[in-house]
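queue> pop job 88
queue> type: inverse folding (structure -> sequence)
queue> payload:
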């Protein structure tokens, strides 16, 4: 198990705290959730925040995968629900993803 790095309060980039985990944990998540090369996942550079995603990229938090049971590639069902509700995937909380996945499981059964 990887312990989170503690970052002093002074080390803040704007109003959002700096990322509190390391490259090793990121790589473990990419391998564990079997991200493909097409997904082109990137670890933020020192001092960057989730709001600093380059053009064409979005920020997805690890909690969405772990707590929300989100997987890539996403199903068309999830995309349709998000489109219908007017949400972008990056706006969804882990609990929101749990509800969408639960709805999908019930719908398919």
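queue> result:
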């Amino acid at each position: 198990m990887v312990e989170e790095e503690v970052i002093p309060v002074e080390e803040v980039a704007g109003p959002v705290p700096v990322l509190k985990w390391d490259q090793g944990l990121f790589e473990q998540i990419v391998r564990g959730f079997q991200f493909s090369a097409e997904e082109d996942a990137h670890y933020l550079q020192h001092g960057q925040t989730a709001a600093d995603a380059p053009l064409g990229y979005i920020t997805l938090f690890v909690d969405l995968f772990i707590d929300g049971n989100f997987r890539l590639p996403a199903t068309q069902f999830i995309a349709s629900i998000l489109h219908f509700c007017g949400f972008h995937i990056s706006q969804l909380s882990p609990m929101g993803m749990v509800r969408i996945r639960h709805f999908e499981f019930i719908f398919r059964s």
